[in-house]
Fold:
Amino acid sequence: MSENNHEILKSAIEALLYVSGDGLSINEIASVLEQANETVETYIHTLMDDYHEREGGIFIQETGGKYKFATSPATFHIIRDYLQIKKKQTLSKAMLETLAIITYKQPITLQEVEEIRGVNSRTLVTGLINRKLIKVAGQKDVPGKPSFYSTTKDFLEYFGINSLKELPPPKEVKELNFDEL
Structure:
């Protein structure tokens, strides 16, 4: 096997471990790559040594006969804290409902959101602004000049889309029961 093929195989094993989540056994990796178990085991141990020598934030560990990426003990508390913050940032059903209205009706005022929802939505709109999922997008030219709201680039990233055109039509979103949309 050429040096290039060795690097490709090593990279392929690393990539498989990365996307596997729960880890993979030697046999599973060997099957995917159509390689001998001994060959895969050699490369996994080489990768494990590489990560160990690097002393980075992740390493490859063997647990229950499977190999997977894990957070290094030195950075575990940082990752734990980050994940707790991230978990707190999940959107409630009311926030998702409000965000859906803004998404499909933008630009839209708070009063218009509240007319559709039938309840006060100021706190929810503020929460969506704080999460950078929506922004003030101008003012309506009426007395009081209420703010218009629209989605942001962070909204697109949060939902893993490139543009609003990728969203399903409102009638296909089962959770939305708004005839107004």
